[in-house]
Amino acid sequence: MFPSCSGYKKSMLLLRPPGVYRADSDTSLLIDVLREGGYAAGCRVLDIGTGTGALALAAARAGAASVTAVDLSLRSVAATWLNSRLHRVPCTVHHGDLCGPVAGQYFDLILANPPYVPAATNILPRHRITRCWDGGLDGRAVLDRICTEGPALLAPAGMMLLVHSAVCDDDATLSRLADAGLHAEILARCTVPFGPVMRLRAAMLETRGLVRPGQRDEELVVIGARRAR
Questions:
Q1: Fold held by 25-227
Q2: HSE of 22 in the Cβ direction (CA atoms, 13 Å)?
Q3: pLDDT tens-digit profile of 174-203?
Q4: E strand or H helix that includes residue 66
Q5: For residue 152, what are the contacts with CB-CB under 8 A and spacing of at least 6?
Q6: Dihedral in degrees, nearest 10, Cα atoms 95, 118, 121, 147
Q7: Which residue blocks in 13-169 are alpha helix, DSSP H?
Q8: Longest Cα pair distance anywhere in the chain, in angstroms?
Q9: What is the pLDDT of residues 100-119, one digit of tens each?
Q10: Are 102 and 153 in contact (CB under 8 A)?
Q11: Residues in the chain with pLDDT values less than 70
């Protein structure tokens, strides 16, 4: 059983400029799975939507052969570059939209903690801090793209590890990955209290039937996916 995600374990100092996602319980859970499963050892790793680079640095420390990170935010690209240098971790950092900057390359492990909080609109913010968590009306706008586009970057025996809230439907993620030719399963779960954004949107989520009346916690899931044999 993987450790519970009571909050991000600050095992290393990470510089975080304004507007960059603060690593939290979802990051912590995915790092726990990464370490406990030994998934990064000897692998070419891609971190999609890297933020501060927390997942990229964790993969490097877990024995990755190489680490590449991508983010649409220039501030996040700068933060990951600085953090990788601060901790003397080799990491190639690209600016761009999801899989675009590394099209044509192949990776043994793809990591992603995408924006997944249901929002008031399907229009995704580009230059505000809310881009770090807004995932469209159902929370799946970015997540579905990763499920569809990510498999094309996997090496033959490659694996994807994704983390998100069950509020945006883990069954839909399993189905999307299966449609992309992967065998997917839930590797870890944990329940955490709503953070500030989810608390502010609780009434909206209740109205849409995405959470139960009065619910103020959410289940986080880590999903692993490999090519179906």
A1: Rossmann fold (3.40.50)
A2: 9
A3: 999 999 999 999 999 999 999 999 999 999
A4: strand 66-71
A5: 99
A6: 50
A7: 25-37, 54-61, 74-86, 141-149
A8: 48
A9: 999 999 999 999 999 999 99
A10: yes
A11: 1-11, 127, 228-229
